[in-house]
Amino acid sequence: MTTGYTSPLLSRHGAVPATGPDEGVAWHYGDPTGEQRALRTGGAVVDQSHLGVVTVTGPDRLSWLHSITSQDLTNLAPRTSTELLVLSPQGHVEHAASVVDDGATTWLVTERSHAVDLAAWLDRMKFMLRVEIADATDDWAALGEPVDAEGAEGEPVTWRDPWPRVTGGGTRYGPPEAEHPGMERPWRLVLVPRAELPDAVAAREAAGWRLVGTWASEAARVEAWRPRLATEIDHRSIPHETDWLRTSVHLHKGCYRGQETIARVHNLGRPPRRVVMLHLDGSGHLLPAPGAEVTLDGRAVGTVTSVARHHELGPIALAVLKRSVPEDAELLVDCDGGAISAAQEVVVPGEGVSVDRPAPRGPVGRGITPRGEGAPTSML
After folding, report:
1. Mean pLDDT, to the nearest integer, of 312-326?
2. Which of 45, 98, 154, 356 has its CA at a distance of 20 to 30 angstroms from the CA of residue 264?
3. Closest by alpha carbon to 27, among 230, 208, 211, 195?
4. Residue 2 — pLDDT band, cuts 50, 70, 90?
5. CA pair distance 242, 227, nearest whole angstrom
6. Residue 240 pLDDT > 50
7. What is the four-CA torsion angle of 241, 245, 249, 253, rounded to 10 degrees?
């Protein structure tokens, strides 16, 4: 989707424009490897001004957002970051937003292509409640920083990425935090007035930081197995498939749209698909595009969602596969110029069972199997 946005930082010397969901900002500034290293060592800033910003004000804002989304927001403290999903009645992901409240306004950062629709949907859902919704994308821009800290009082509005920690009410399908590669990726978004974006970057450069592109930030995200609305999510996605119950869903809050699917799959079923990280064969210098077909023994079994050239790991990708694909199977990925082989790194295990799935309380009904034996995907 073309947004029509162009960052003023694209006028920098050496800037190469990004494409796809990052259109409008720089993919890199001439040195992708050096930029990745700078981001890894914590001395970099990433232009994320292509993201969308939605604000919600009014005394009912947190309790109202709590009632219509997947996250527990009733007692969200100021300058405490979380994230939420808006689900369809069938539990499919429609919107995702990074969330932080400053005591007067709840800030929702999302993909620019979703901001208008998210604001419109929220506006339709407010009824008689004391809330006001605005698409503030034209007024506010985001900067990405490799910093693991919330914004302090007096600082700009800041969202600290909770991934891959299991937040209150969440659960995990993948490894514990101590074993998760995402723990090596500190990340936050700092919101600045859009007109002040160049000055905010210049101030960081004056402190010794380097301006880097989305090649670097996306490579770090793929390495961290971090799902993204614009890439890993399609019209069939449920949060379990991407291990997004870690940070975006509270399993023990009140009713909200899509909750039945969330609870049913967690308690009894198994997600029909699972996300994996692929280590791609780079010997032929071929790289698949997002959307490329993944095959096993000549059968289509999944789709590549995100692709990156990592400065240490080489070519890597995230892909969504059928849950039934064996975890040790070597796959083929379509490329322009021929298929290449890909080895899986498991993110969501094929078993499809979370670590805290409740044990059955009594005899299991026909077509439903207890923990460890799975359940039919028809339960979705």
Report:
1. 98
2. 98
3. 211
4. low
5. 6
6. yes
7. 110
Q: Give the β-pairing of 273-280 and 314-322.
A: antiparallel
List, as own/partner pairs, every contact residues 121-128 make where C-beta atoms lie below 8 angstroms and the sequence separation is at least 24, other chains included: 121/86, 121/94, 121/95, 122/54, 122/56, 125/68, 126/64
What is the predicted pLDDT for the residue at 360?
A: 73
Question: Is residue 371 very low, low, confident or very high in pLDDT (cuts 50, 70, 90)?
Answer: very low
* 8 A C-beta contact, residue 73 and residue 108: no
Q: Is 83 annotated as a binding residue?
A: no
Give me 123's structure tokens: 């506006």
What letters, b where the CB count within 10 A reaches 16 and e where it falls short, cover 324-336?
ebeeeeebbbbbe
Is residue 47 predicted with pLDDT exceeding 90? yes
CATH number attached to the domain at 8-239: 3.30.1360.120
Alpha carbon distance 302, 169 (integer Å): 30
pLDDT, average across residues 350-375: 66
Q: What count of other Cβ atoms lies within 10 Å of the Cβ of residue 82?
A: 22
Per-residue pLDDT, averaged over 67-90, amounts to 98
The secondary structure of 302-354 as a DSSP string is EEEEEEEEETTTEEEEEEEEETTS-TT--EEE--TTS-EEEEEEESS-TT---
**288 preceded by a cis bond (ω within 30 of 0):** no
Cα–Cα distance, 68 to 65 (Å, whole number): 5
Q: How many CB atoms lie within 10 A of CB 156?
A: 16
161-174 pLDDT per residue, tens: 999 999 999 999 99
User: What is the residue-averaged pLDDT of the chain?
Assistant: 94
Q: What pLDDT score was predicted for residue 272?
A: 98
Helix and strand numbers (H, E) in the chain are 7, 18
For the chain, residues classed under CATH 2.40.30.110 are 273-352
- Indicate where the chain has its CATH 3.30.1360.120 domain(s): 8-239
193 C-beta neighbours (distance < 10 Å), count: 12
pLDDT at 362 over 50: yes
In angstroms, rounded to a whole number, what is the distance separating the alpha carbons of residues 318 and 305?
6
Class for the domain spanning 273-352 = mainly beta
Q: Collapsing DSSP states into helix, strand and coil, what is residue 115?
A: helix
Which of 222, 217, 229 is CA-nearest to residue 188? 217
